[in-house]
Each structure stands twice: as structure tokens, then as C-alpha cells.
Design goal:
Blueprint (H helix, E strand, L loop, with lengths): L3 H6 L10 E4 L4 H11 L3 E8 L11 E8 L2 E7 L13 E5 L3 H12 L3 E7 L6 E6 L5 E6 L2
Parallel strand pairs: 1-4, 5-8
Antiparallel strand pairs: 2-3, 3-4, 6-7, 7-8
Length: 145
């Protein structure tokens, strides 16, 4: 039997929690550059690349970090081909300040992507849109009421 009081009283030290994106086909750096070119106050903060004779393709991303509006992300180029990729069940949610901002972001992210919910009023926000971008990453854009 699990003693819940004991679990609740034990503290677990955790430095931080960071969303992690695994890209296939060497697309991590291209995706990071794409995202920081669209979202203001964003930057690539570090890139470690595979070198010659390492487990990944030389020059691809072994590990990188980037931030979008202060939210840090990590990413890699997977050197292993998986039977899975990104799924809309995990998405990056952006709260917009103006209608111009949501329209602009949606337009830039939908290029070569797929609409899951086109921009519109779905009742829970003034304007909302959900899409998969050209890299398969899922994004939700909301303009609160």
C-alpha cells in the first residue's frame, strides 16, 4: 500500500522542466531558425553538432537549446529513424495580443503545414487556430476574449 502522506511530504529537487523536440532528417536547425525568425524576442542559445565519426550525421544537431519569448526548448536531430514523429496531442500554445499578431503568426506557421482548426471564433476565445507546421510540430494560437 502506498503511503500518500509520505509521498506528499517528500520533496523532489528538480532544476527545471524543458520541452524537448526530436527532429528527423536533419531538420532541427532549420526549424529553430524558422521559429526565431517569426517570433520576436527569440534566439538560439546553444548548438552542439555531431562531428566526424560520431553516431549522428556530421554537422547535424546533437543537442541545441533555443528560446521563444523566454520559454526555453531543447531539440535534436535523431540519428535513429523512428516509426513516430510529432503528434498534435502535444502542441505549443501561443496567446496573442492582437488580431494582427494572430493572423500574421498563423499565416507564417501554416506555410507548407496543415490546418487542424483554421482561424476562427470557436466560442472559447475571440479568435483561435491550430495547425501542424512544415516540420510536423503542432501549434495553437489564441486571441483571448
Amino acid at each position: 500500500m502506498i503511503n500518500l502522506r509520505k509521498i506528499e511530504s517528500e520533496s523532489i529537487y528538480m532544476e527545471k522542466v524543458t520541452p524537448f523536440l526530436m527532429f528527423q532528417d536533419g531538420k532541427a536547425e532549420e526549424a529553430m531558425n524558422h521559429y526565431i525568425s517569426i517570433i520576436d524576442d527569440s534566439e538560439i542559445t546553444s548548438i552542439i553538432r555531431y562531428g566526424a565519426n560520431e553516431t549522428g550525421d556530421e554537422g547535424t544537431v546533437m543537442q541545441a537549446t533555443f528560446s521563444l519569448k523566454g520559454q526555453e526548448f531543447m531539440c535534436i536531430d535523431s540519428n535513429v529513424k523512428h516509426q513516430f514523429s510529432f503528434t498534435p496531442s502535444f502542441s505549443i500554445f501561443i496567446t496573442c495580443d492582437t488580431e494582427e499578431e494572430i493572423d500574421n503568426l498563423y499565416e507564417k506557421f501554416i506555410t507548407n503545414g496543415q490546418a487542424l482548426m483554421p482561424l476562427g471564433n470557436y466560442g472559447f476565445s475571440k479568435k483561435f487556430g491550430w495547425l501542424n507546421d512544415q516540420f510536423g510540430v503542432s501549434w495553437q494560437f489564441s486571441l483571448p476574449k
